[in-house]
Amino acid sequence: MRVWLAALSLSFLFLVPTAADAATLRCGTQLVADGASKSDVLLKCGEPMAKESRTEAVSDKLKQRGEDGTTTSTEKTVIKTIDEWTYNFGPNRLIQVVVFENGKLVEVRSGGYGR
């Protein structure tokens, strides 16, 4: 009984999606994964049906304590370019939205079935 329960528990772990799975896309027999460049995705998956691009400013506040006990605060702003490409692989597969940050693949989201 314990062996069966352990085997069931381990098999469940393999069924639960992980964050690493989120940025993986299958295009035919090719795979593109987290960190892939836009050109790599184009080579393996072809032209997407739609492309959108935007920039985002992300600010971080950093607090530092000096030797005299005073606290200083600095703000750093980073500009990111976000590209979203939409792939429609037909009625038997889900639409895939591929998200790039500064040219690198960071996320793949699924939509409804394609046409």
Q: Please, could you describe this protein's structure?
A:
The chain is of the alpha+beta class and 115 residues long. Helix content is 23%, strand content 51%. Strands 3-4-5-6 form a 4-stranded antiparallel β-sheet, with no helix packed on it. A hairpin with a 2-residue loop joins strand 1 and strand 2 (30-33). The longest helix has 14 residues, at 2-15.
Which helices and strands occur, and which strands form pairs?
Layout: H1 2-15, H2 19-22, E1 24-27, E2 30-33, H3 38-45, E3 50-65, E4 71-87, E5 94-101, E6 104-113
Antiparallel strand pairs: 1-2, 3-4, 4-5, 5-6
Low-confidence stretches: 10-21
Radius of gyration: 21 Å
Helices and strands: which structural class? alpha+beta
**Mean of residue pLDDT?**
83
Query: If strands are numbered along the chain, what order do they take across the biggest sheet?
Result: 3-4-5-6
The total strand number stands at 6
N-to-C series of helices and strands: HHEEHEEEE
Q: Strand portion, in percent?
A: over 45%
What spatial form do the alpha-carbon principal axes imply? elongated
The description of the largest β-sheet is: 4 strands, antiparallel
The percent of residues in helical segments reads 10-25%
How many angstroms separate the termini? Answer: 47 Å
Number of H/I helices: 3
